[in-house]
Every structure is written in C-alpha cells, then in structure tokens.
Specification:
By secondary structure, the chain is α/β, with parallel strands linked by helices. About 25% of the residues lie in helices and about 40% in strands. It has seven helices and eleven strands. Helix 2 links the parallel strand 5 (about 65-70) and strand 6 (about 90-95).
C-alpha cells in the first residue's frame, strides 16, 4: 500500500462493509480522512462546510443559553464539533448506530475524536437514532421523555436517498410529529440533505412545526471546478 494511502480500519456491519481510511491529497496538499459504507462515501474531510453549517444555522434559531442538543449521526464529527463551538451549549448527545464509528473516535483514529471525547459536555451514544426517535422513551435512555433545545440530523443523504429503508417513516408527517414532541417550546430541528429542497418534506414538517424553511447552502468544489450545493432544513416549534 502506498504511504500516501492507508486503510485505518475495516469492519463488517449490519449495513455493509465499513471502511475508515486516510490519504494524502496532492491537489489540496493535506491529509484527508474518509468513511465508506460498501461503495458509498459517507463522509470526507475534504468537504465539511454543509455538515458544519447545519449546526450553525440550527443553533442560530435559538435564544437564551444552557441548551441541550442532540445530534443524529457522528461520522467524522464535524457537526458535533461545530455544536460544541457554541458556548451556549450545556450538553450534547451524539447518537450513532455504528459502534465502530464511535470506537474510532474514542481511539483517536479520527482527529475530531480527541476533542469530542475530552469535552465534558459531549456524550457519544451507540444507538439507532431513528428507532430511538420513534420509541416512547425518546432519545435519552437514561431520561425517558427528555426534550431538547435542538436536534440536528446528518445521517441519510436526503429525505428520499436513505441509507436504510427503515429510516423512511422519519420523513413522513407522523415522524415529524414525533420529532416535534422531543423538542422544548421554541426548539429547533436541523437536517442536512445532499439534494435540492423537497417540497413534500417541507409540507410534512409544516404539519408539526410552527415555522419551516429549506435553505440552499453553496460551497466551492475545487475537484470539479464549480460550486456545489446542499440543503439545510430548519423547523422550529411554537414557543407556547
């Protein structure tokens, strides 16, 4: 194997073959970490702007401080890192279905893991975010019924491009209703999507939330010499 390319770990999982690798990118002159699931790239440290922006924009919808935040999806940790940059955050629970990804962070194989595991506000939780969201106990097994100020999700590629069919009901009206019930009054839900805004999904959120918007995020893609886009969905509950 070339010294410029290293497979850090490989694990079989119920979702497929999970691979963590790093390589030296000559175009960017930097080390790049990547996570693949079978032939699908889940995350690359080359492109993290949208994952960071969904956290920034979601927290910007909140007022006050002392926020409890949940993030669905750990990945390379950029969404969680951005949440922790905000001093108003009191606690952060990061939920991921793949224990292997959590292990990589805890072992320091992923650079963000050092910061995440050292921050006393942050807890890495092994669990199926979607199953927990539909369960009566909610997102915190230690505090059934706990509600959050913000829930930010970066797992599926989009509401229609899912990593697993079992996630589908989360994007339906009933899923939006369950999600809203996990938030405090004035709480916000943020979702990253790699696809353009989906009118049907905006409508589903609108049945459960007081305000909903889908914002297109633009960022440079030097590999293709053009701008790339993603969508950030933001939905807030009523203050009463």
């Amino acid at each position: 194997m070339s010294s410029r390319f290293q497979e850090l770990d490989w694990r079989p999982t119920p979702l497929g073959e999970l691979v963590l690798r790093k390589r030296w990118d000559k175009t960017f002159d930097k080390e790049v970490h990547e996570i693949k699931l079978d032939d699908d790239f889940l995350m690359s440290s080359l492109f993290t702007f949208a994952e960071e922006e969904v956290a920034r924009r979601a927290l910007a919808e909140l007022t006050g401080s002392d926020w409890a935040v949940a993030v669905g999806g750990l990945g390379l940790g950029y969404t969680a890192l951005t949440v922790l940059e905000n001093p108003a955050v009191r606690s952060l629970a990061v939920i991921d279905a793949l224990a292997e990804v959590i292990d990589w962070h805890e072992r320091g194989l992923i650079p963000a893991g050092t910061t995440l595991t050292a921050d006393p506000r942050c807890t890495l939780v092994h669990g199926d975010f979607f199953a927990m969201a539909r369960s009566p106990g909610g997102l915190d097994a230690t505090q059934p019924g706990r509600r959050f100020d913000a829930i930010i999700v970066d797992i599926d590629h989009s509401p229609r491009h899912l990593l697993h069919p079992s996630h589908g009901d989360f994007y339906e009206p009933a899923g939006a209703e369950r999600l809203a019930a996990l938030l405090r009054p004035g709480g916000v839900f943020g979702l990253w999507s790699n696809d353009p805004p989906d009118d049907d999904y905006v409508a589903a959120l609108g049945l459960a939330f007081a305000q909903v918007k889908a914002e297109v995020v633009t960022f440079p893609n030097p590999l293709q010499d053009r701008d790339a886009t993603a969508t950030v969905y933001l939905a807030t509950t009523t203050l009463e």
